[in-house]
Design a protein that fits this description.
With about 260 residues, this protein is of the alpha/beta class. The chain has a single domain, classed as NAD(P)-binding Rossmann-like Domain (Rossmann fold). The chain is about 45% helix and about 15% strand. It is built from 8 helices and 7 strands, in the order βαβαβαβαβαβαβαα. A 7-stranded parallel sheet has the order 3-2-1-4-5-6-7, with helices on both faces. Helix 5 links the parallel strand 5 and strand 6. Helix 1 packs across helix 6, helix 3 runs parallel beside helix 4 and helix 4 packs parallel to helix 5. The chain starts with 14 loop residues before the first strand and ends with a helix.
Amino acid sequence: MNQFTNKPSDNNSKSVFITGASSGLGRQMAIEFARRGYQLALSARRLDVLQALRLSLQQAGAGQVHIAELDVRDAAEVVRVFGEACTALGRIDIVVANAGIGNHGRIGQLPFERVRDTVDTNVIGLMATVDAAMRYFRVQGRGHLVGISSVAAFRGLPGGGVYGASKAAVTNYLEALRAEVRGSAILVTTLSPGFIDTPINQAAKSRPFVIPVERGGRLLVDLIERRVQTATVPAWPWALVARLLPVLPAAILARIR
């Protein structure tokens, strides 16, 4: 049965490149983009999972789905894989720098190799993806760069120092890029999810206001299609939380376990 029968006609030729597409938000965005008629270039470290995803999407009636194994920590591989995706699809309209991991633990207690892996994936990996995309978009003359940050970027929290710092770097980096391309045909979007039910947070002791991954993926793609500059996902209550976190006394934050 074709699940993708209601494709908007103006999206039929659009293409999107997504990193970290094998699970969580990346996978759900791929499903949602396919449902809306986009051509897909999907990358992740687990090629076998991508192969299964491509098969399920094609069986459901999706259009072209290009896949590639990619560890975003390897900048040279990012350039190579992105170039192959551009060739396979003819052009790339949207790049979603989504690949990320979540290592949590108190500073000085979390093994440092996990600290390094978080920064290498969430920061260096995103920067490598954005760099490759921007070199392409500048030549193409247009494009839409989407970076997945987090509400964790808004304030350092006990046990979340490394993850929050990595996402704060993402938000800051994309703010700089947005200023650099102002007035051009290149758009930069920063999306900051709260708790969405994905493997990255399923081991957390508390997940306030958590929403299903299906709703999260739909909201993310809605915002991308609306071409917003920044947004929390979902908007309520995280837009309010984002305003409150920076002004909360440290004594209150210290109670978090």
